[in-house]
Amino acid sequence: MTPTHLPGRVAIPHQKRGTTLERFNTAPAAEVQHTLLTCLRSLRWAHRITTHRPYPTLDALLAASDEAAYDLTPADLTEALAGEVLPTLPAGSYSAAHTALSAARAAYETKFGHVFVICVDGLPPTETLNHVLTAIRSRLTNDPEEERVVAWEELRQLARGRLLDLLRGAGNCATSHNEPAPGK
Question: What superfamily would CATH give domain 1-184?
Fold first, then answer.
């Protein structure tokens, strides 16, 4: 088997025949779990998705991803949040925007004790900065429990989008992961 490399991802072994979903369903569990950790840095979530293979359709896999995300405990959420970083600002963003985002991020992390997460899938790059700044400022008004629910939903959306990208071979995530997956 020759690995199929996805930018910024662990390879899912390439087999001569079959769809990406078929390869996902038949790849060794350890490789799939490691790859899933690039979508959502929760060992519980990745293990659950891996152990419930095979999935008959992409929709079934996405439904399982959502269900596994809904079942994350507060400790699982903390683990997943620890692996996240802010979305990258579009090229050409002016320095005042970086300063504003850094200040808002610092206030958010001080208040909630974890990184700000937001899914910007489908958003034009020109609107990313304004969307992120507006959202972070708005969410700073949440109480900690309310914000955990919002952050959890954003993580679920990120995981779903990353999983779709992974299976479509796009490798394009709303946030970047420059560190190895947990436990690796």
Answer: Oxo-4-hydroxy-4-carboxy-5-ureidoimidazoline decarboxylase (1.10.3330.10)
Output 95-101 pairs: Cβ under 8 A, ≥24 positions apart: 97/129, 97/133, 100/133, 101/129, 101/132, 101/133, 101/136
Establish whether the linkage from the previous residue to 180 is cis, with ω within 30° of 0. Answer: no
Q: Please tell me the pTM assigned to this model.
A: 0.75
Structure confidence at residue 91 (pLDDT): 65
For the chain, domain boundaries? 1-184
d(CA 113, CA 162): 24
The alpha carbon of 92 is separated from its chain's Cα centroid by a whole number of angstroms, namely 25
Q: Give the residue among 2, 40, 39 at the shortest CA–CA distance from 23.
A: 2
Question: CA separation (Å) from 89 to 8, 85, 165, 177?
Answer: 18, 12, 20, 15
Q: For 98-152, write each residue's pLDDT tens digit.
A: 788 889 999 999 999 999 999 998 898 888 888 999 999 999 999 999 999 999 9
Give the CA angle between residues 128, 42, 44 to the nearest 5°: 145
At which residue do the structure tokens 């679920």 appear? 156
Tokens of 37: 């950790």
